């Protein structure tokens, strides 16, 4: 479980806090999405989850971040790397080995996992991201979506409990985006992994998440199930966030009393009319 | 006269397979078209022919009625502005003002005229307060507006936007698109290359679909997104609203407001 208590942070040389008193609890196995305009603090918040802030990136830090009861202030970042995988926007920055297999072996080798177990983990991770056939491939030859899936798999072989992803599909084409989101869905549903996703497109958020956190200017301004959050069309619009078209359409129909609730997906929309 | 006229062009990069396999396309003055298709389908390669960055190995490209083979990239870029995906690649000067002034200076525009043009563009792109700031101190959205300003200051008649919104948040995207829409109203031809089908249906009158180096579809957003076979071939996902109007058995719509009216009428 992740517990964040009155978290404040200011980068060096900045005049204003980028996080202004965040309180959050994320349950084991929960899929939480964070959304908000650029500069709202969402990426900074991610960096506090494995202790990079305040351990590696200094600044004025107050409050507490607890991962399964352990305060990030009390342990090295490396302690948390077993527990938390962190995936960034650009997969290229995370890939460095000559083959997919070496890429995936690197993490568990450093944790001194026995060789046969590493092999098991690699084939498990590759089956989740659906890339068993690319085990001997040079990562540089993969497509954008494949690279990002390998970056995810390279964390999976460390058997983390929590996966934090900061806009993992923003550089990918539609096919790559779909591939990555379907991997996240599987990790959540089948592997019961805790997932924290920073994302600015609302369609995948509506489909995948248990809870949505809306941030603006260093604070959480709205929080709840996708159904609750995406019903606040006007508040979100003010932040430059457009709810999925299907939610907006059903929101308009709901305002006029034609339907009882907003829909989050096409399938839900269909059921409202049948 | 068409603003862009492409006639049967072929192109291959050295020691690589053919990227364009006989493409013909006419774009009217003041038209707003989107080019869509999978990565590797040839969208960017085609667009790079409009300002001479690439030259066809076969076929002809006419810009504003003139054969591009007779002109240099510099000459073509007076008429064709090109905005790329990553604004940082286009930024190199010390201040925002110098950055925007660079293009017209190279064309030998007078100091007075440059000053006038830059200030006007700063206003349109809402960057006036950053006139003397270092370009790299701007946010992602502001940098993209600066890159757009440096293109717009050349007063091009054709604007090519190659995935201009990738990695930007929605407020920044809205900021860029407002400016582009204004220019289009003043009869600037806009060619938008994007993966965002929402943008395509919101903005363009015409969608050109590319697949494997050829144009495989050309029509209004409604026509294109109603053609399941074409979408399948180009691996495109239609906007949610189009899918939903089909689900309800209503006439296809691509915009929320239009489908809302249709549903209310039907109920």
Characteristics:
heterodimer, A: 274 residues, alpha/beta, six-stranded mixed β-sheet, four-stranded antiparallel β-sheet, 12 helices, 10 strands, B: 267 residues, Rossmann fold, 2 domains
Layout: helices, strands, pairs:
The complex is a heterodimer of chains A (274) and B (267).
Chain A lengths: L1 E10 L7 E8 L4 E5 L6 H7 L3 H4 L3 E9 L2 E2 L5 H5 L2 E4 L12 H11 L4 H14 L15 H13 L5 E5 L7 H16 L4 E5 L3 H7 L2 E6 L2 E6 L1 H4 L3 H6 L6 H11 L10 H7 L2
Parallel strand pairs in A: 3-8, 3-9, 6-7, 7-8
Antiparallel strand pairs in A: 1-2, 1-4, 4-5, 9-10
Helix pairs in contact in A: 4-5, 4-6, 5-6, 6-7
Chain B lengths: L1 E11 L5 E11 L3 E5 L6 H5 L10 E6 L2 E2 L5 H5 L2 E4 L12 H11 L4 H14 L15 H13 L5 E5 L7 H16 L3 E5 L3 H7 L2 E6 L2 E6 L1 H6 L1 H6 L6 H8 L8 H11 L1
Parallel strand pairs in B: 3-8, 3-9, 6-7, 7-8
Antiparallel strand pairs in B: 1-2, 1-4, 4-5, 9-10
Helix pairs in contact in B: 3-4, 3-5, 4-5, 5-6
Structure description:
- Chain A has 274 residues and is an alpha/beta fold.
- Chain A is built from twelve helices and ten strands.
- Chain A has helices spanning 42-48, 52-55, 77-81, 100-110, 115-128, 144-156, 174-189, 202-208, 226-229, 233-238, 245-255, 266-272; strands spanning 2-11, 19-26, 31-35, 59-67, 70-71, 84-87, 162-166, 194-198, 211-216, 219-224.
- The mean pLDDT of chain A is 92.
- Helices cover 38% and strands 23% of the residues of chain B.
- Chain B is built from eleven helices and ten strands.
- In chain B, strands 6-7-8-3-9-10 form a six-stranded mixed sheet. Chain B has a four-stranded antiparallel sheet with strand order 2-1-4-5, with no helix packed on it.
- In chain B, helix 3 (96-106) packs across helix 4 (111-124), helix 3 runs parallel beside helix 5 and helix 5 (140-152) packs parallel to helix 6 (170-185).
- The relative contact order of chain B is 0.15.
- Chains A and B meet through helix 7, helix 11 and helix 12 of A and helix 6, helix 10 and helix 11 of B.
